[in-house]
């Protein structure tokens, strides 16, 4: 496949926030702009980018407010592979360095610790590696729900604008499969899958590009510590246990069912086989 080339270090126009209706999201954003900095410290979670480097308004990455706007899903596409390595750096070839940071939230605006993020993307020439695991990797959010991915700006290929694929899953909850997009890409206007709500905020420095995006999962939350999955006590019978390092292909039983490990990981409460289909395949 021959990739169509364009300058991946360019910053262009971004899509402005659509609509003129007043929502709580917009009121929160307005309050953040109008209030002096001392009044904002600790008051609200940070937005992952309201503007492009040129100062134009961006629809923010889905902002946790009333639970009316979790991050929208998108198709998985044909190039997903299970069993990606656990890592935060995917510098597997030449290209413009990209550092993506963000936080995974639930509907109550609380960070979600130990959320699984599984990333995959094309290389600088717009080609996916379907043989090994170049530009593929998974990681978990830290105690503050934050993540960092170091990779390169993916290349273009026929029919698509520039994008990064990702699966996100809170412990014991359904998987969100979606895609992240770059502002200012000409093909954003012609790609039928493109969604401006999934735009990253991207800045260019002399050595790399820096992007931010916050995920909002459709996970109900209550005040207090981030809730863990229900029904996570190991069953009376079964070989699965928390705190065990499982390699790809390892087999366990949980209840009356058997499972095969799809991604090497250290097990923890909330990632029991029935609750973590990204990690375990029923056999």
Automatic annotation (TrEMBL):
Keywords tagged on the record: Dioxygenase, Hydrolase, Oxidoreductase
Annotated spans, Disordered: 1-22, 51-85
Cleavable signal peptide: none
CDD domains: ChiA1_BD, intradiol_dioxygenase
Pfam families: CBM_5_12, Dioxygenase_C
Family note: Belongs to the intradiol ring-cleavage dioxygenase family.
Protein name as catalogued: Carbohydrate-binding protein
């Amino acid at each position: 496949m021959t990739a169509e080339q364009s300058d991946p270090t360019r910053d262009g126009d971004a899509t402005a926030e659509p609509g003129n209706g007043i929502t709580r999201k917009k009121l929160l954003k307005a309050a953040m702009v109008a209030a002096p900095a001392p009044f904002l410290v600790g008051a609200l979670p940070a937005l992952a980018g309201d503007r492009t480097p040129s100062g134009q308004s961006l629809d923010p990455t889905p902002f946790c407010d009333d639970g009316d706007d979790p991050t929208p899903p998108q198709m998985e596409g044909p190039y997903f592979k299970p069993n990606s390595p656990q890592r935060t750096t995917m510098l597997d070839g030449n290209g413009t360095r990209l550092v993506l940071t963000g936080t995974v939230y639930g509907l109550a605006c609380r960070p979600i610790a130990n959320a699984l993020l599984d990333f995959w993307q094309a290389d600088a020439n717009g080609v996916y590696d379907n043989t090994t695991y170049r530009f593929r990797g998974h990681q978990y959010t830290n105690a503050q729900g934050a993540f960092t991915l170091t990779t390169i700006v993916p290349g273009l290929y026929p029919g698509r604008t520039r994008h990064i694929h990702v699966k996100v899953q809170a412990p014991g909850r359904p998987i969100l499969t979606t895609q992240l997009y770059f502002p200012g890409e000409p093909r954003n206007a012609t790609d039928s899958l493109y969604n401006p709500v999934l735009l990253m905020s991207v800045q260019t420095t002399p050595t790399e590009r820096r992007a931010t995006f916050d995920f909002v999962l459709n996970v109900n939350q209550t005040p207090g510590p981030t809730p863990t999955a229900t029904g996570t006590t190991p069953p009376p019978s079964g070989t699965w246990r928390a705190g065990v390092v499982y390699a790809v292909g390892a087999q366990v039983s949980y209840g009356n069912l058997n499972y095969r490990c799809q991604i090497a990981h250290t097990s923890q409460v909330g990632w029991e086989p029935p609750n973590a289909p990204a990690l375990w395949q029923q056999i």
